[in-house]
Design a protein that fits this description.
With 358 residues, this protein is α/β, with parallel strands linked by helices. The protein has 15 helices and eleven strands. The strands form two sheets. Strands 4-11-10-9-8-7-6-5 form an eight-stranded parallel β-sheet. Strands 1-2-3 form a three-stranded antiparallel β-sheet.
Length: 358
């Protein structure tokens, strides 16, 4: 049985503290020499994170700092989408609670996952004291203040909580998304108001389409004197070869102390279909980067146990081990055929449902 992957529905900080991320927008693709330099820096950062995590673990699960938030999160996080793909709601609840009891504290979700069923099941699982064990993240699609407010309030109700630890703008996949979020009457106004009201602790964004759009979102935030607490993006053994978030966005996040949320360590199972790497190799590669957490989908107990095993057995890889994994995947990764979230609309829920954007 293979481990599922995560995050996609197929159907105000001081500006002076930031580096000028907008400069990154005009950069061209990295040369091999530059990439190797970044990889070396990433290895050093990951080793540093692992060393600090060694001092803190829960049930064998290492914990890492989430950027500059001061929060510590589990090296592996439980993806929300696949939880409601499990046909039995009671089993979904058991998976969540077993994960929390097993040392995972990072829970991912989204307002639009499975028509809200993913949040509903997670809300039930967080009863009986389990909310206190969780660092709870969910996402909203709304680009307008009105839509974002409505979706956040609905998520709070479904999740049966009065506070989201990390709220993220979901599917920042269009060139127009950054401007819409930060426009007058845009979604950011709603989220900042919610933060002031105590409904939200930290703010981030997620997307899977293009490093350019991530960089534009960061640059737009900087232009408005805002710094995100966390950013979520695909980080895996094939991303390193094709339109790479690892090469182009990861250095900006680490440079600015922004929490790195890795997703799609197995490309939503498609990378496994390439027959080049195993699930554990996929997870370990993503964990070896300077990620705060690697989010993966678990729709059964055996797959959850495999995720826990990957985190407990993780040891920092050296450059030769990383090179060996990348060599195994380089040919298959060339055209992005196993990263369909970058090359097709198959994973773009807001493309199929533009009304979610507001």
């Amino acid at each position: 049985m293979t481990l599922n992957d995560h995050d996609s529905n197929p159907s105000g900080s001081d500006r002076s503290n930031q580096s000028p991320v907008s400069d990154r927008l005009v950069e061209k693709d990295f040369s091999r020499r530059e990439f190797l330099g970044i990889s070396a820096a990433s290895l050093l950062m990951a080793r540093s994170l692992s060393a600090s995590a060694a001092a803190e673990a829960k049930n064998g699960i290492p914990y890492r700092l989430l950027g500059c938030t001061g929060e510590k999160v589990s090296l592996v996080g439980l993806g929300g989408y696949h939880l409601a793909r499990q046909s039995d709601p009671a089993e979904s609840i058991r998976i969540i609670r077993t994960g929390l009891d097993g040392g995972i504290n990072f829970l991912d979700n989204c307002w639009d996952y499975n028509g809200g069923e993913s949040e509903i099941r997670m809300g039930k699982a967080l009863r009986d004291g389990y909310r206190q064990k969780a660092f709870l993240m969910t996402k909203i699609d709304g680009r307008t203040k009105t839509a974002a407010t409505a979706q956040l309030n609905e998520s709070l109700r479904r999740l049966q909580t009065d506070r989201i630890d990390l709220l993220q703008f979901h599917e920042v996949i269009r060139d127009s998304d950054p401007d819409r979020v930060f426009a007058e009457g845009g979604g950011m106004e709603a989220v900042l108001q919610a933060k002031k009201a105590g409904k939200v602790r930290f703010i981030g964004f997620t997307g899977h389409k293009s490093p350019d759009i991530h960089l534009k979102m960061l640059a737009t935030a900087s232009e408005h004197g805002f710094k995100f607490d966390a950013v979520q993006m695909p980080l895996n053994v094939m991303d390193a070869h094709f339109n790479s978030f690892e090469q182009r966005v990861l250095p900006v996040l680490t440079e600015n102390g922004i929490g790195v949320l890795g997703m799609k360590p197995m490309g939503d199972h498609f990378i496994l279909e390439s027959k080049t790497v195993t699930p554990i190799e996929c997870l370990h590669y993503s964990m070896n980067l300077p990620t705060s957490v690697v989010i993966t989908g678990c729709d059964s107990m055996p797959i959850l146990q495999q995720a826990l095993q990957a985190a407990r057995s993780f040891q920092p890889m050296d450059s030769s081990q990383v090179s060996a994994l990348l060599a195994k995947t380089s040919k298959a990764a060339e055209a992005g055929q196993f990263e369909l979230y970058k090359t097709s609309h198959q994973f773009d829920g807001t493309y199929a449902n533009p009304q979610w954007l507001g």
